[in-house]
Amino acid sequence: MIRILAVDDHPVLRGGLAAMIAAENDMELIAEAGTGREAIDLYHCHRPDITLMDLRLPDMHGVDAIIAIRESYPNARIIVLTTYLGDVQATRALKAGAQGYLMKATLRNELVDAIRAVHAGRRRLPTEVASEIAEHSADDLLTAREVEVLQGVAHGYSNKVIAERLRISGDTVKTHMRNILEKLAASDRTHAVMIALKRGFLNI
Q: How far is CA 136 from CA 91, 96, 142, 144, 200, in A?
């Protein structure tokens, strides 16, 4: 019997996961969590064979929950559930130790096979996500500060306001913006935000 922990802040989605798992003779949903903290505690209590982990949780990012779990349990087998196709989020999750990455839109068709594959020690990554990762593998990643600047742009702040909020000079903001546009091959600030959202640099 494959014992499963489901982590998602939406009860309706957890209910859907429970129904799909209940229909399988070799699977059992042993616990559900709505936050990252709950997920870590429940993992410690139940030591599930597979954890289904949403990336957007109310108290922490799903990747941070994966890191926390695998620090104590390096053999934890975790499948990420997300609505985002971006290569940045996928790369972060895989580096943190996730063995599977599933789009929520395809769960009905792929969840059960992914659980069995990861339980058997294999990785499971959608073709589209693998293609995105391959396409951008040689790109320079945005630095943490560049992401902060772009987050300010996404919220509609001017360079002056971004500089004040980050306690840096206006010239430094301009330099960061030049680097961001170059790294993302963006034509302007709005285009940069759109690319960053698609690839998963930003969470808004």
A: 10, 19, 12, 18, 12
Tokens for 28? 């059992």
Structure tokens at 1: 């019997």
Q: Tell me how far CA of residue 27 lies from CA of 102, 110, 135, in angstroms.
A: 18, 15, 36
Q: Of how many residues is the chain composed?
A: 204
Say if CB 162 and CB 153 are below 8 A apart: yes
Q: What is the pLDDT of residue 143?
A: 87
pLDDT in tens, 122-178: 998 877 777 777 766 666 788 889 999 999 999 999 999 999 999 999 999 999 999
140: CB partners within 8 A, 6+ apart: 183
* Residue 204 to residue 201: CA distance in whole angstroms: 10
Q: How confident is the model at residue 204 (pLDDT cuts 50, 70, 90)?
A: low
The residue whose two tokens read 């999750």 is 93
What domains can you pick out in the chain, each with its CATH number? 2-135 (3.40.50.2300), 144-199 (1.10.10.10)
Whole-model pTM? 0.74
Q: Which residue spans within 61-109 are E strands per DSSP?
A: 78-82, 100-103
In the chain, the amino acid numbered 116 is R
